[in-house]
Amino acid sequence: MKKNLIDLDSNQAWIRLIIIFTMSVIGTAGMWSVVIIMPNIQSEFALDRAASTYPYVATMFGYGIGNVIIGRMLDKIGITKPIIFALTLLIFSYLISTLAKNVMWLSVIQFFLGFSAAAFFGPMMADISRFFYKRKGLAVSLVASGQHLCGAVWPFLIKDFLLDGEWRDAHLFIALVCSIFIPILFYFLGEKSPNIKQDFYKIKREDNVRLSIHHLKGNP
């Protein structure tokens, strides 16, 4: 049982942060990809600028709702099942999006893409916050930045598809990358829990030592 426990702020905690950060960079593609393909969508479906934003609006609705619902799932049943559910939905949504014949159909699918991508943002931050005490703010901020790095990385990865107007191929490529790398990362994430009891006493002792030094220096 002890091997499944991770001390707060330990090297294992930082390794977990790196894994979660990488999952966030990959998984939140479900939120950013719609922004990248919008010009192709507008051209293919002969849309005006307002109508071409429907998939984006649907994605944002899904993303917001997904953060709440999947975050609540994480509170109740832990991280494993919500991530498996979200990854399955993410890959399936990318695959089914290639069959879209009009913007409304695509918008519905984009809602589920946003919903599933949310699992790799808010819930990831909630999970990593449990493994840090002294560096909790830094850890959560680093995981949050993974979403923004995602928006910077993916355009370079799928630009060749978009230059040819093949946004469907881009979606297939994203689905392939997610289906390969996220399960591998999730395997290394494992079923770990923070060693709260041990670290609570350790932190308390450290606080008592600092307080004693403070009084020895003559401070009130």
Your description of this structure?
The chain has one domain (2-195): Up-down Bundle (Growth Hormone, Chain: A), CATH 1.20.1250.20. It has 9 helices and 2 strands; from the N terminus they run βααααααααβα. The protein has helices at 11-27, 29-44, 54-77, 80-97, 103-117, 122-129, 136-163, 167-189, 196-216, and strands at 5-6, 193-194. The N and C termini lie far apart (44 Å).
Q: What's the average pLDDT?
A: 87
Radius of gyration: 21 Å
Q: Which structural class fits the helix and strand makeup?
A: mainly alpha
Number of helices: 9
Q: What is the rounded distance between the termini?
A: 44 Å
Largest sheet: 2 strands, parallel
The ordered string of helix (H) and strand (E) elements is EHHHHHHHHEH
CATH superfamily: MFS general substrate transporter like domains
Helical amount: over 70%
Question: Widest sheet: strand order?
Answer: 1-2
Low-pLDDT segments, ≥5 res? none
CATH architecture field: Up-down Bundle
Overall number of structural domains: 1
Count the E strands.
2
CATH fold annotation: Growth Hormone, Chain: A
CATH class: Mainly Alpha
Tell me the β content.
Answer: under 5%
